[in-house]
Amino acid sequence: MLMKQATDVRKEWSASCDGVIHDKPIFIKRTRDKMWFSNLDTMSQILNAYTFTALKYMEDDGTITLSLNEIDLIENGVTEVEARLALANSILEYSTEYYLNYELYSHAPNRKAHVPYIFKALIMDDPKKIGESIRCQDGKN
């Protein structure tokens, strides 16, 4: 693989950062550890394959409930737009909590698969954009 040694990256830190931002990501090796260094645009492109999907339920009182498929989050709103925004805020709040407790959450068997969605939400960092990106399907009450 095209690994750069961590000591070389550290010695050429400014040039390495410029290369990652303007050229391409780099792979770095430090002893037995291997890592990836890229800009957020590249990571965002990679994460485009991951989409937030939700089941939409029309409640008896006329409100809309959205149940996120990828992460166990559910929100309700008077309109679908309101429910989407509430769900997006929950996604962002959960993503922040997950990141702050990454060592614990990323190793929990029921939360490991959340990682790409967490980074997607953190990179988007906008509840309105997250809400608009949620793909909804009708659920069965």
How would you describe the overall organization of this protein?
By secondary structure, the protein is α/β, with parallel strands linked by helices. The chain folds into 2 domains: 3-38, YefM-like fold (3-Layer(aba) Sandwich); 47-138, Double Stranded RNA Binding Domain, CATH 3.30.160.620. It contains 7 helices and 7 strands; from the N terminus they run E-H-H-E-E-H-E-E-E-H-H-H-H-E. The protein has helices at residues 6-11, 13-22, 40-47, 80-100, 102-105, 115-124, 127-133; strands at 3-5, 26-30, 33-37, 53-58, 64-68, 74-77, 135-138. The strands form 2 sheets. A 4-stranded mixed sheet has the order 6-5-4-7, with helices on one face. Helix 3 (40-47) packs across helix 6 (115-124) and helix 4 (80-100) crosses helix 7. The model has no long low-confidence stretch (mean pLDDT 96).
> What fraction of the residues are assigned to beta strands by DSSP?
15-25%
| Overall residue-averaged pLDDT value | 96
Total tally of structural domains: 2
CATH architecture of the largest domain: 2-Layer Sandwich
Q: Work out the helicity level.
A: 40-55%
- The helix/strand order is EHHEEHEEEHHHHE
Q: Output the number of helix runs.
A: 7
Going by helix content, strand content and strand pairing, the class is alpha/beta
Q: What labels would you give this structure?
A:
141 residues; alpha/beta; YefM-like fold; Double Stranded RNA Binding Domain; 2 domains; 4-stranded mixed sheet
